[in-house]
């Protein structure tokens, strides 16, 4: 089986001129010539692999860039994948085979999701880093290997280390240089440049898709969104836009539709109305919990949490809860004709607590009474 190597990426393919991306490019530039281990960190879809491709492209190393995703290969196969095996080393090993360390000869070995590497293999990796030699499974012969090691993780390896899931000595070895790729929400000013670069990539990827131009109000909407799936989510969005916009430039309402923002808002508002109408009030003293489902019961039927958490996209509970809180407060104020007192009753909050929350979110109520 041929080793999975990836296309070289131009340094220029890393779009963005925010301070964070400028710094990232500078770090790639400085470190690429040296054969030191590099760890790239950052949330999923932020561009870690792109950094690794740029590091390899700029390194001048003659061999290939070989990628191994430690989370995608079953534990018991990962060792043979990395180290290779001799014929008969295990059931089914009918021929001998090189491993990825050997495939990366004079090139770069990229171990993605290194945080998922089992502890036993971490010990073996540490030894290879120290000796620059490997033994294929089923053989005691040591073979010299010449590779440059780059690893990536979206997990906090420090946390994993404290829980005993990652070796401290290996972490120090891997992180001679750490290049952090920040979430897209921390460099929102890069979005226009990213759209240009990614649209060109999509136009040239053989899919026949042509992302539409973006109007000013559409761009504002895109820059307001928090992109939990980072640049990958932006790319998916542009592919969706190319399919559904029928060549029309993207304005605010199309962007909202394609991001399903109105549906999310409607869902939350419907949930809120349902919840508010089921809160027993002073007038409705006789209401019992049997007659009206509690808000919790309404929430249990909501499958969006399962979908979001299973999607693999970065999810921030704090931001999500703040959005829900803000939505409840604004809707309660709307339903209460801006009366803070009545809105506070609807939300079962003290009036002073609601006022404090309104200040936090910058909400002003003219009909404050
Ligand atoms: N700065 C950028 N400029 C252009 N394209 C980018 C940039 N950052 C990311 N991309 C594109 O976004 C997609 C996701 O990036 P990438 O695969 O590098 O993310 P990742 O952090 O490695 O994700 P994961 O942790 O899920 O493996 C890719 O198609 C990549 O080309």
TrEMBL record:
It comes from the Bacteria. Keywords: ATP-binding, DNA-binding, Nucleotide-binding, Transcription, Transcription regulation, Two-component regulatory system. PANTHER family: PTS-DEPENDENT DIHYDROXYACETONE KINASE OPERON REGULATORY PROTEIN-RELATED (PTHR32071:SF117), TRANSCRIPTIONAL REGULATORY PROTEIN (PTHR32071). It holds the Pfam family Sigma54_activat. Residues 14-243 form the Sigma-54 factor interaction domain. It comes from Lacimonas salitolerans. SUPFAM superfamilies: Homeodomain-like, P-loop containing nucleoside triphosphate hydrolases. This is Sigma 54-interacting transcriptional regulator.
């Amino acid at each position: 089986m041929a080793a999975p190597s990836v296309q070289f990426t131009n340094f220029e393919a890393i779009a963005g001129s925010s301070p964070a991306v400028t710094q990232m490019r500078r770090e790639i530039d400085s470190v690429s010539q040296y054969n030191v281990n590099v760890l790239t960190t950052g949330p999923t879809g932020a561009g870690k692999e792109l950094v690794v491709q740029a590091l390899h492209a700029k390194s001048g190393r003659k061999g290939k860039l070989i990628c191994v995703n430690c989370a995608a290969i079953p534990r018991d196969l990962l060792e043979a994948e990395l180290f290779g095996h001799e014929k008969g080393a295990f059931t089914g090993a009918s021929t001998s085979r090189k491993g990825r360390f050997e495939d990366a000869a004079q090139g770069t070995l990229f171990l993605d999701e290194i945080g998922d590497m089992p502890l036993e293999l971490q010990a073996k990796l540490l030894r290879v880093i120290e000796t620059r030699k490997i033994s294929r499974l089923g053989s005691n012969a040591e073979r010299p290997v010449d590779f440059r090691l780059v690893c990536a993780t979206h997990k906090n390896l420090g946390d994993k280390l404290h829980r005993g899931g990652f070796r401290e000595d290996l972490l120090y070895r891997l992180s001679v240089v750490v290049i952090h790729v920040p979430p897209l929400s921390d460099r929102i000013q890069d979005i226009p440049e990213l759209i240009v670069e990614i649209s060109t990539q999509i136009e040239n990827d053989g899919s026949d898709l042509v992302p539409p131009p973006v109007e000013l109000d559409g761009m504002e909407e895109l820059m307001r969104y928090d992109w939990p799936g980072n640049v990958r989510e932006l790319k998916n969005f542009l592919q969706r836009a190319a399919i559904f916009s029928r060549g029309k430039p993207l304005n605010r309402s199309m962007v909202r539709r394609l991001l399903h923002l109105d549906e999310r808002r409607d869902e939350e508002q419907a949930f809120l109305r349902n919840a508010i109408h089921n809160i027993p009030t002073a007038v409705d003293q006789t209401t019992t919990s049997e007659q009206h489902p509690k808000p919790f019961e309404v929430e249990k039927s909501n499958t969006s949490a399962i979908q979001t958490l299973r999607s693999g996209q970065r999810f921030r509970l704090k931001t999500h809860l703040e959005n829900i809180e803000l939505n409840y407060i604004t809707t309660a104020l709307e339903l209460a004709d801006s009366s803070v007192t009545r809105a506070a009753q609807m939300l079962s909050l003290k009036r002073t607590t609601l006022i404090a929350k309104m200040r936090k979110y910058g909400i002003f109520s003219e009909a404050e009474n």
